[in-house]
Amino acid sequence: MRLAPSLTALTLFACAGGPTPAPSTPPPAAAAPAPVSVKPPPALDEPVGVAAARIAGPATGLTAACQEAMERTRAGIEAVKASSPPRDTVATLTAYDDALAAASDLVSQAAVARQASPDAAMRKAGEECSRQIQAQLTGISQDRALYQVLSGLDLSGQDRATRWWMERVLRDFRRAGVDRDEATRERVRVLNDELVAIGQEFDRNIREGTKTVAFAPADLAGVPDDFRKAHAPGADGTITLNTDYPDYKPFMAYARSGKAREALWRAYNTRAPANSEVLTRLLAKRHELATTLGYANWADYITEDKMIRSGKAASEFVERISAAARPRSERELSILLTRKRKDDRAATRFEAWDYSYYSNRVKAEQYRFDAKEARPYFEASRVLDGVMGVTGKLLDISYRPVQDAAVWHPEIRVYDVIGGRTFDERAGQSLGRIYLDLHPRENKFKHAAQYTVISGQSGHRLPEGALLCNFPRSGGLMEYDDVQTLFHEFGHLVHHVLGGHTRWAANSGTATEWDFVEAPSQMLEEWTRDVGVLQAFAWHVKTGKPIPTTLVRRLRAAEEFGKGIDVRQQMFYAATSLHLHDRSPKGLEPTPFVAEQQSRYGAFPVVPGSTFYTAFGHLNGYSAVYYTYMWSLVIAKDLFTAFEAAGVFDPETGSRYRRRILEPGGGKPAAELVTDFLGRPYEFAAYEAWLNRGTLPGPQRKSGPAPGPENRPAALH
Ligand SMILES: [Zn+2]
User: Fold this and answer.
1) Residue 599 burial (CB < 10 Å; 0-12/13-18/19+)?
2) Residue of 274, 123, 122, 265 whose CA lies nearest to 206
3) Residue 73: how many other CB atoms lie within 10 Å
4) Block means of pLDDT (10 residues each) for the chain, length 717 residues?
5) What pLDDT shows up at residue 594?
6) What spacing in Å lies between the alpha carbon of 628 and ligand 1's midpoint?
7) CA distances from 94 to 32, 79, 561 (A)
8) How many Å lie between the centroid of ligand 1 and the Cα of residue 222?
9) Domain 31-176 carries which CATH code?
10) 226 CA from centroid of ligand 1 (Å)
């Protein structure tokens, strides 16, 4: 997914909580297993479309499928444990993989049901199913007899992907406490169950926390005509706006009245107030779980299996990036305050609700780029065509509409992803199915994210994935930022589909280290900056003419403005996420604590009474690891250097990218995937160049693009 509550382009990539953890010292022997060969139930080879139909309802169907999956998982695990040595490694791994795939796919489907179903009974069934299966997975991750079987397998003849998978599996057993005493394992089990339930409460409060604000028609001064037309006054003459993205983002970008923007911003940043207390419980349980397992805190526990490895390293990364962005952000803020003073001579503060509006003013006046000028080129259905065209050409795939699929809402569009000629024997065949649930509605997930529906596996199941987003409907106009978000989400989707043909379900799709997983999506955003790419789909909604080259150039120059502030705000979110989790939560009051993080890391003044974190959904899904977005961005910028050198649609580079980054799924450590593609290890240079790129207007200049390079190089190593 894309991140950041107020930034833009991040997507929700959600965390369907796969099987968990495990450790390494051999646990005491369990009762001697009966000498039976591995005879698990047959692999789950469900036809395409069945899972989505299940999410469509009724709720009783999901509940029944949930029970069936749990039984299949239980029987598979029992079969593995009942086998006797010498064990056939491949047969044992197959049974184990099949068993977990059944459970984890149902957890994913339950997540889609609870976040997107219009049926309250289905959302409830989704929550219940998630809780039950997560509990089962926790039990499996602590099963000593199972651990003993798996850790005793001879992997010497197995391939790299198999060995890397088992390395992770055995580590995760240890992370679940498999080698701890009975009382400890029981406590870990209970805590895991409680964390699932508390996390669901956090998500639910956000989903149901949309607020509305009534405005006088005059408050809409400055907004685009299409926005005004879509918001007619009610019987009492007022115009009601809500805090969902299609209202919130354009209003913050265009409404001239600072008071009106402040009113909607305050509503947006006080959503889900009950989550302050929910978060306190979440932090306490996470800390207890981590310390019970011998970690100093949750941040150390959750980063251990990421590329970054420790809470301390994550903290150093946040400090380094934050310091690198600060000089640039200070200059940008000073330019913005100067511009605000033209409207309000007494202004001494630049507020969070001023940012989107005044950065648009600076871009219009000093970079000659007005976002309103670009907006008519981004009609929603054309942008969708655009992202499909780009991913199709880059990866040699096409999208075939599916008309008769059963889905959970009539607005969802369904496509099969078809392989092109370079897919050899799979050319012309479906590689997987995607579900695009792109528009807001009541009780639906409020951000943008990609969800798994089915994890693909070679020879068994085609991958199926869904996007849950909140974009305008067909005919509506998107902000450029929304365009980037859609490209970003598609990055996850094609990773899921193209990586969904692995030998093991456990390695399918986006099963790479979490702090790498945003990189392919962030890299795909680069295609929205290319003139040729944009002109292929960004056609004016009335004239049908492609977006002019000069407008794209101005857009790109203007896009450099605000980068320092954006990075700094991202580091505020990362610091909030990390520092809530790298200490004892005893006595920690979230509201003042987050305010303190904001004064240290954020770009804007703290606003008393606002509680952005109560609707910061990542605090459930990502807990301490929001930093992953910026870490992935470092890698994304490096990956893109290959396309910068060869051309954004260079067939050889595109094919190499597909085969070496996307198709392996989680079959290798991410650092190796990157080295395979680039021919060298990843480095910071491209990110550093990006952060320092572009010119800032000098404060003395009144108009026109500013000359001269930004003179405060950031230090990144
Ligand atoms: Zn993402």
Assistant:
1) exposed
2) 274
3) 26
4) 38 30 35 53 81 97 98 97 93 96 96 97 97 96 96 96 97 94 95 95 95 98 95 97 95 98 98 97 98 97 95 96 94 97 96 97 94 94 98 98 97 98 95 97 94 95 97 95 97 98 97 94 97 98 97 94 96 98 97 98 97 96 94 97 98 98 97 97 93 72 31 26
5) 98
6) 10
7) 22, 11, 52
8) 32
9) 1.20.1050.40
10) 29
So what's the pLDDT on residue 372? 87
Peptide bond into 86 cis (omega under 30): yes
Using CA atoms, how far apart are residues 501 and 455, in angstroms rounded to an integer? 9
Cα dihedral value 76, 78, 80, 83, nearest 10: -140
Query: Would you mind telling me the total number of residues written for the chain in this entry?
Result: 717
d(CA 51, CA 407): 9
Helix (H) or strand (E) holding 151: helix 144-151
Q: What is the pLDDT of residue 703?
A: 33
Does the fold of domain 376-559 match that of domain 31-176? Answer: no
Residue 36: strand, helix, or coil:
strand
C-alpha 575/C-alpha 354 separation (Å) is: 23
What does the alpha-carbon distance between residue 295 and residue 237 come to, in Å, rounded to a whole number? 58
Local structure of 111: helix, strand or coil: helix
Q: Exposure string (b/e) for 320-340, b if CB count within 10 Å is 16 or more?
A: bbbebbbebbebbbebbbbbb
Residue 404 CA to residue 407 CA, distance in Å, equals: 9
Tell me: cis bond preceding 58? Omega within 30 of 0 counts: yes
Looking at residue 648, its pLDDT comes to 97
**Domain boundaries, given as residue ranges, for the chain:** 31-176, 210-268, 376-559
Ligand 1 midpoint to CA 453 (Å) = 17
Q: Are 286 and 584 contacting, i.e. CB atoms less than 8 angstroms apart?
A: no
Instruction: Enumerate residues 6+ apart whose C-beta is below 8 A from 677.
Output: 639, 642, 656, 657, 660, 661
pTM for the full predicted model: 0.87
Q: Determine the pLDDT at residue 150.
A: 97
User: How far does residue 34's CA lie from ligand 1's centre (Å)?
Assistant: 46
Distance 622 CA to ligand 1 centre (A): 12
By DSSP bridging, strand 239-242 and strand 212-215 are antiparallel
- The CATH number that domain 376-559 falls under is 3.40.390.10
- Report the separation in Å between the CA atom of 9 and the middle of ligand 1, taken as the mean of its atom positions: 9
- Among residues 701, 703, 699, the alpha carbon closest in space to that of 338 is found at 699
Cα 535 from Cα 556, distance rounded (Å): 14
Radius of gyration for the chain, computed over Cα atoms and rounded to the nearest angstrom: 25
Instruction: Render 561-584 in DSSP notation, one character per residue.
Output: TTHHHHHHHHHHHHHHHHHTTSS-
Q: Count of CB atoms within 10 A of residue 475's CB? A: 11
**What is the 5 CA–ligand 1 centroid distance (Å)?**
13
